Hints:
The chain is mostly beta strands. The protein has a domain at about 80-180: Glucose Permease (Domain IIA) (Distorted Sandwich). Helices cover about 0% and strands about 25% of the residues. The protein contains one helix and eleven strands. The chain has one helix at about 180, and strands at about 65, 80-85, 90-95, 100-105, 110-115, 120-125, 130, 135-140, 145, 160-165, 170. Strands 1, 2, 4, 5, 6, 8, 10 and 11 form an eight-stranded antiparallel sheet that branches. The longest helix has 4 residues, at about 180. One of its GO terms (molecular function) is metalloendopeptidase activity.
Amino acid sequence: MWAVVLATVVPAAVLGGPALPARAxxxxxxxxxxxxxxxxxxxxxSAPVPALARVWPVGTRPVVIRGWEPPATAYGxxxxxxxxxxxxxxxxxxxxxGRVSFAGRVAGRGVVSVELAxxxxxxxxxxxxxxxxxxxxxAAGEVVGRVAAxxxxxxxxxxxxxxxxRGDTYLDPLLLLPPWLLRRGPSRLLPVLGVPPx
Length: 198
C-alpha cells in the first residue's frame, strides 16, 4: 500500500524560526517617474570627398554624357555615377591608387571596383573588359581594363559609367577631380612682369 505524503507550507513564525520580512509592494503609478526619452543620436557628418584623382578614367578630358543625379530614396530613380564618352577598346584607368576589390561580370557587364588607398571610398567602372584581378594593387593612372564593345547604357555609342561609393552611399565621382583636371582647354604660360623676353 502506498502512503501519500502531503507537504504543508507553514510560516516560519509558527515553527519558532525568524519571521520573514513582508514582501515589498511596488510603488503605485503616481510614484513612478520616468526620465524623458533621450533624443536619437545625430548622424555623423558626411566627410568631404578628397580631390585625389590624378587622371580621368578615360581619355584626358572626356565628354560627360550624363552627370550624377542622386536618387531621392535608396531605390528611387536617378543616375548613380557619370557617363563618360569613350570608344570601344579605349584604356580605362584607376583615377587614384588603391586595391582592386572586384573585377568580373555583374548582370552581363564587366565591372572593376577599386578601394582608394587611405580612404573609405571606392570607385567603379563599367562596362569594361578587366585586365586586373581582385586583390591587385594599382597606381593612379594604371590601366584596369578596356572599354567593352557591348553593355553600355549610353544611347549614342559606347561610354564608361564611373561610380563612387562610401559604404552603400553613392557620391558624385567628379568630386574626386582637382580643379586642374576639370579645366577645359590647353594650359597657357603667361609672361612674368619685369623679366625681359629671351
